C-alpha cells in the first residue's frame, strides 16, 4: 500500500460528477417508498394548482369575468408551494446525520449540496410533471363536460408552467436545508436527532 | 510552541492548547471543556475515558476537526484547525483522519464496498483503483465475501467492520473511534477491539478512542481521564495495569 501523496498540500479535488449522480440515484432507488410519498405530495400540490388554472381559462371562455377564479388560482398556488416545501424540508432534515457522516468521509460542502440538488431535480421534475398532466387532464375533461372549451396551447402552457414552478420549489426547498446542514460543523450535523 | 516541539522527540500528531468549548450564551452557557492541553503521539493507542457529560465527546470532536473550539487551539499534524477553510477541513477529514462511530453511521443506501470506496472517490482516486483497494480493505476486516450487501443486511459487528475498512480508505494517520463497541455485544466488541489493535500495530495508525469499555483500556497505550471538562489524569498502560491489579 502506497503512502498518501503530498498530504501537506491542502487542495481538495471534488469527485467527478457521476459520484454525486450515483449517490442521488442510489438514494432515490433504495428509499423508493419514502421518496415516492414525497413525490406524490409534490404531484398532488401541483395537480391542484394546474387544475385550478385550467378551470380558470375554461370559466373565462364562458363568462369573461375571472376575478373569482384568479383568487382561487392564487390560493391553490400558495397551498401547493407550502405543501411542496413541507415535503422536501421533512425529507432533507431526516437526513442530517447522513450529511454529517458524509462530511466526516471528506465530502466538500458543495458535493453534499450537489447530491441534494440532483435528487430534488429528479423528484421535482417527475412529481411536478405527473401532477401537472393529471390536473390539466382532469380539468379539461370537466370543462368539456360543462360545455367550455380550453385550447390545447393553453393546456400545454399550464402543464409546462406548473412543472417548472414545482421543480423550482422542490429544488429550493431541498437545497436550502442541505446548504444549512453542509455548513454546520460535522459534529452538530451528527448530533441532530429526528 | 516551537520549544516544546523541539523538546519532544516523539512524533506528535495532535496537540491541543488550552482548548475550551462553550455551548450557548450568557446565563444558559455550558462549558463542556475547560482548558485541555494534551499531546497525542503517532502510532499510539489512546483511550479517552470519562463519565457522560464530562466533555469527553466534545474533546473528541475537537481533536477530529468535527467542531471548532471556543478558545484555545487544536493542531493536527502541526496545522491549526481553526485556520483552515471549510474546503481544507474537508481535505483533512478525507486524508488524515478516519472516523468510526458508536452507531456505525454507514451510508444506508450504498453497499459495503461503495461505503469503503466513497472516501477514496472524494480523494480523487480513479474508480477501479478505489474498488481494488476497497476489496482489499474488506478482506482485511474479514468481509470480502459480503461486499455487495447494504448495511441493513449486515449485523452490527459486520457494519462496524465495514466502518473500520472505510476509515482506513485514504491511509489516515489517525483513526478516531467514538465508543466503537458501545452498541455491540461482548464477544463482537472484543473482536472489534482486537481488529483495531491489529491495525494499530500493523499499519502504525494512531487510534484515539472515546470509551468506557474496560476491554478497550487493556489494549491502550495511554488513557486520558476527563472530569468536568478538564484532563484529570493521564495514565500509561503500566499504571493502568498496576492500579487494576490493586483493585482486584
Report on the structure:
The complex is a heterodimer of chains A (194) and B (248). Chain A has helices at 17-30, 32-63, 67-93, 96-104, 109-145, 152-183, 186-191. The longest helix of chain A has 37 residues, at 109-145. Chain A is an all-alpha fold and 194 residues long. Mean pLDDT of chain A is 87; it is low at 1-8. The two termini of chain A are 40 Å apart. In chain B, helix 4 packs across helix 5 (127-140) and helix 4 packs parallel to helix 6. In chain B, strand 9 and strand 10 (230-236) form a beta hairpin. The model of chain B is unreliable at 1-8 (pLDDT under 50). Chain B has one domain (43-61, 84-247): Rossmann fold (3-Layer(aba) Sandwich), CATH 3.40.50.300. Chain B is of the alpha/beta class. Classes of the chains: A mainly alpha (194), B alpha/beta (248). Chain A binds chain B through residues 1-4, 7-8, 10-13, 15-16, 19, 23, 26-27, 29-31, 97-98, 100-109, 111, 183, 185-188, 190, and chain B through 61, 64-68, 77, 84, 86-88, 90-96, 99, 101, 105-110, 114, 118-119, 121-124, 133, 136, 150, 166, 170-171.
Amino acid at each position: 500500500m502506497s503512502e498518501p501523496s503530498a498530504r501537506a498540500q491542502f487542495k481538495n479535488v471534488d469527485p467527478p460528477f457521476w459520484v454525486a449522480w450515483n449517490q442521488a440515484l442510489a438514494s432515490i432507488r433504495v428509499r423508493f417508498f419514502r421518496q415516492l410519498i414525497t413525490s406524490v405530495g409534490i404531484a398532488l400540490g401541483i395537480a391542484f394548482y394546474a387544475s385550478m388554472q385550467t378551470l380558470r381559462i375554461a370559466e373565462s371562455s364562458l363568462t369573461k369575468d375571472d376575478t373569482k377564479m384568479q383568487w382561487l388560482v392564487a390560493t391553490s398556488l400558495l397551498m401547493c408551494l407550502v405543501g411542496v416545501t413541507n415535503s422536501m424540508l421533512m425529507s432533507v432534515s431526516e437526513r442530517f446525520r447522513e450529511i454529517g457522516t458524509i462530511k466526516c468521509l471528506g465530502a466538500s460542502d458543495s458535493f453534499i449540496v450537489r447530491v441534494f440538488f440532483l435528487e430534488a431535480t429528479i423528484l421535482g421534475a417527475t412529481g411536478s410533471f405527473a401532477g401537472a398532466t393529471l390536473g390539466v387532464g382532469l380539468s379539461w375533461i370537466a370543462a368539456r363536460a360543462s360545455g367550455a372549451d380550453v385550447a390545447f396551447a393553453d393546456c400545454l402552457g399550464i402543464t409546462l408552467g406548473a412543472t417548472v414552478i414545482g421543480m423550482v420549489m422542490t429544488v429550493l426547498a431541498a437545497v436550502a436545508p442541505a446548504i444549512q446542514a453542509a455548513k454546520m460543523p460535522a459534529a452538530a450535523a451528527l448530533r441532530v436527532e429526528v | 510552541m516551537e520549544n516544546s516541539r523541539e523538546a519532544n522527540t516523539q512524533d506528535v500528531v495532535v496537540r491541543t492548547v488550552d482548548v475550551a468549548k462553550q455551548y450557548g450564551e450568557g446565563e444558559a452557557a455550558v462549558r463542556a471543556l475547560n482548558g485541555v492541553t494534551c499531546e497525542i503521539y503517532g502510532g499510539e493507542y489512546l483511550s479517552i475515558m470519562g463519565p457522560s457529560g464530562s466533555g469527553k465527546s466534545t474533546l473528541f470532536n475537537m481533536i477530529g476537526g468535527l467542531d471548532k473550539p471556543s478558545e484555545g487551539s487544536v493542531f493536527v499534524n502541526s496545522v491549526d484547525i481553526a485556520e483552515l477553510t471549510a474546503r481544507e477541513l474537508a481535505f483533512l477529514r478525507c486524508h488524515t483522519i478516519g472516523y468510526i462511530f458508536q452507531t456505525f453511521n454507514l451510508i444506508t443506501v450504498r453497499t459495503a464496498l461503495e461505503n469503503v470506496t466513497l472516501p477514496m472517490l472524494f480523494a480523487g482516486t480513479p474508480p477501479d483503483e478505489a474498488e481494488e483497494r476497497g476489496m482489499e480493505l474488506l478482506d482485511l476486516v474479514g468481509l470480502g465475501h459480503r461486499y455487495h450487501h447494504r448495511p441493513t443486511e449486515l449485523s452490527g459487528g459486520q457494519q462496524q467492520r465495514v466502518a473500520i475498512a472505510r476509515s482506513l480508505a485514504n491511509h489516515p494517520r489517525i483513526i478516531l473511534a467514538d465508543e466503537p463497541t458501545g452498541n455491540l455485544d461482548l464477544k463482537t466488541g472484543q473482536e472489534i477491539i482486537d481488529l483495531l489493535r491489529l491495525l494499530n500495530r500493523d499499519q502504525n495508525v494512531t487510534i484515539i478512542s472515546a470509551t468506557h469499555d474496560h476491554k478497550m483500556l487493556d489494549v491502550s497505550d495511554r488513557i486520558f481521564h476527563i472530569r468536568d471538562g478538564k484532563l484529570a489524569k493521564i495514565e500509561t498502560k503500566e499504571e493502568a495495569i498496576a492500579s487494576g491489579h490493586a483493585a482486584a
